Amino acid sequence: MAAPRVSPAAPARTRASAFEYVFPAIRGIQAGREYYVTMCPLRLIPRLFVFDEEELTPELRAQRTLNKARVPEIARYILDNPTSYVFSALTASVNADVRFEAFDADGRGGERLGTLTIPMEAKFVINDGQHRRAGIQQALAENPELGDESIAIVMFLDIGLERSQQMFADLNRHAIRPAKSIGVLYDHRDEMSAISRLVVFRSDLFNDLTETETSNLSARSRKLFTLSAFYNANRALLEDIEPDSLERRVDLATAYWEVVAEQFPEWTMVRQRELSAGEIRRDFIHSHGIVLHALGIIGNSLLRASTSRTSWQKTLKGLRQLDWHRGSAAWEGRAVLGGKVSKSRANVLLTTAAIRSALGLPLPPEEQQIDDTFRRGDA
To answer: Are 127 and 249 contained in the same domain?
Structure first.
């Protein structure tokens, strides 16, 4: 059913002395209960779906507390992408006696298509999508012309607080945030995602050894790196470094990582099937995300301080002299905690400080402070 460009609700009309909303809708059955799918203009969303979390304690609500930090992000997403934003349907409950009138069997859709009539005094409760609703409201305040665009609504008949709370739990029970790697792979708006993809895809070595779908490598994976790790590393590498085009930023990052790769012959040996990726990840830390991130931070300093590729290429050759074995005492407490690699910010900084010192580079204040604390045994 196509979404109308104007409100799907017919003008308020009087029927049995009551004002009503009338929506074109599709009727379905789920778990033995009727539900309805309709379209609603964005301008009606803030008016129909009220979210008053302050008035009720959690046990008397059917939604989580609104994370107000997310709302401006959603609104900005709509406003910055007016021709390409996309939203999934809102899921809502309505606590009123509704009436569904199917079209004639000889008409469009038989008994599944028709009109859904809802009293105007009905209360609509969002079971899933309160952040989208708040983001839409904020975007409309800045650009009212968005009001005629529409969003799908999946509407259930409300049968009490307990059922609404269970719906919220069920709708979120199996919701899993996609892996960061596949998000980077599919994100065509974010420049750093584009840079990271291009750096990986243009390198025979990195293209062959980088996992682009998941952010965690299994013991049997033949990949050494994840795309999400390169994203974090490139973001650190290119921070506040702005060549005049995306292509030049890609070229700069590509050149840097090519030189880094030359310092780790084990990476090439994995690509040539002389060593297994699992062995390298198990025994060494230089292919782990924490080290790539640290090398990105160090690279940022080198690119800022150096006037030519030759100077920072010479510095990076010192990477060959470090003991990259996971069991080395040099990494315990810095990159490795109890035998496991840690990616916390503190561990990234401690790892960066260790590598920077080994390369004979001065430590910036933040790294110096955390390194001093670590050496005193206070970390």
So the answer is: no
**Helix (H) / strand (E) containing 173:** helix 161-173
Q: Which amino acid is at 361?
A: L
Give me the domain span that covers residue 159.
13-173
DSSP three-state, residue 203: coil
The pTM score is 0.74
Query: 193 and 269: one domain?
Result: yes
Residue 2, SS3 per DSSP: coil
Hunting for tokens 């002395």 — which residue is that? 17
Higher pLDDT, 10 or 350: 350
Q: Which two tokens stand for residue 95?
A: 């606590």
Given a cut of 90, is residue 2 above it in pLDDT? Answer: no
How far is Cα 110 from Cα 117, in angstroms, rounded to an integer?
A: 18
Is residue 121 domain-shared with residue 139, that is, in the same domain?
yes
Cα torsion angle, 254, 256, 260, 265, sign: positive
* 280 neighbors 266 (Cβ within 8 angstroms): yes
